[in-house]
Design a protein that fits this description.
Layout lengths: L1 H15 L8 E4 L2 E4 L6 E5 L2 E5 L6 E3 L2 H9 L6 E4 L21 H5 L5 E4 L6 H7 L4 E3 L6 H15 L2 H22 L7 E5 L12 H8 L3 E2 L18 H7 L3 E4 L8 H5 L8 H5 L2 E3 L12 H15 L3
Parallel strand pairs: 5-6, 5-7, 7-8, 9-10, 9-11, 11-12
Antiparallel strand pairs: 1-2, 3-4
């Protein structure tokens, strides 16, 4: 029933929006069907408007998050190559293409008709545009709504607008389910989220900070970037973290060998509640840094940590 309701919501929402993504509908007694989207379509990315002349059949993703989104919205079968960091989902056709130091000639060798990126070193977009290949560029999402915006834009670009809408609904409902399961376990619980061993963190003004905020947790990094000069990613000091004494420590840098044992051995950190209680959570670094559909998995990891610290 949930799948039926979700599909119905997608159709109703698209109809209410006047099918601005280019899709057309045909209504007959007792049923409504959605035809293939009409091209060209125009989508807005972080750089402006992008015109997609025809439905893409050979997509390249040079963004780990875009790769996850494309598969989540049902466009994965048309992805011909992904960058060397796109390790999820498993079926994604990983290559040695780089999203950080992209090689235009190597990219064009796959004869793409759409390239999705998260970073332009300076001439990638112009080079692909000159070659007649449309490029969609999305940087890090600043909020949950921004995640939805990016997924829905990719849905319109790839001819999968309804699937993209369904995907955003799955995220929304997934987050709601996780929060319901957590109850009020997070209310007032303080935390420190570590990005790297130089003590960079996130504030509540970031996407991942927003997710912690859904649990009504207290972020010790907020006071360190009250003026927003660090754009939500302040560098804290060891002394500051110890003095703030968070209830839980979340490690998003486990990919680089940092674990709970390392943290417990840091000078002075043994005095903190989180260390004494063993409330040091080793997150999956990919899940804790990618702003795509797996933000629900991130929220579940937070909820599990909150449940773990509750008295039996």
């Amino acid at each position: 029933m949930k799948g039926v309701a979700l599909a119905a919501l997608a159709v109703l929402t698209l109809s209410a929006c006047g099918l601005a993504d280019g899709a057309t509908t045909t209504t007959v007694p007792g049923q409504t069907t959605t035809a293939q989207p009409v091209y060209p379509v125009t989508v807005t990315d972080d750089l402006g408007d992008v015109v997609i002349e025809t439905m893409p059949q050979a997509i390249i993703s040079l963004s780990t998050v875009a790769t996850e989104m494309l598969y989540e919205i049902g466009a994965g079968e048309r992805v011909v190559a992904v960058d060397d960091q796109s390790n999820y989902p498993e079926e994604a056709p990983m290559t040695d293409l780089s999203g950080f130091t992209p090689n235009l000639e190597a990219i064009l060798s796959y004869e793409p008709d759409l390239v999705v990126i998260s970073f332009d070193p300076g001439d990638l977009v112009s080079g692909l545009t000159t070659a007649g290949v449309p490029v969609i560029s999305f940087g890090a999402a600043a909020s949950i709504e921004d995640v939805y915006r990016q997924m829905e834009a990719l849905g319109r670009a790839t001819g999968n607008p309804e699937a993209a809408l369904e995907a955003t609904q799955r995220i929304e409902w997934g987050l709601a389910d996780v929060l319901a399961g957590a109850g009020g376990a997070g209310v007032g619980v303080s935390y420190y989220h570590e990005i790297d061993s130089n003590y960079y963190s996130v504030t509540s003004a970031t996407l991942f900070g927003e997710i912690y905020g859904l649990f009504e947790m207290v972020n010790i990094a907020d006071a360190a970037d009250e003026d927003g000069s660090a754009f939500g990613y302040p560098q804290l000091s060891s002394e500051y973290i110890v003095s703030e004494d968070p209830d839980i420590i979340f490690l998003a840098n486990t990919l680089y060998g940092v674990d709970a044992e390392d943290v417990a051995q840091r000078p002075g950190w043994d005095a903190m509640i989180a260390v004494q209680d063993g409330a040091i959570v080793e997150l999956d670094s990919d899940v804790a840094s990618r702003w795509g559909p797996r933000i629900v998995d991130f929220a579940e990891a937070v909820a599990a940590a909150l449940r773990e610290r509750e008295p039996a």
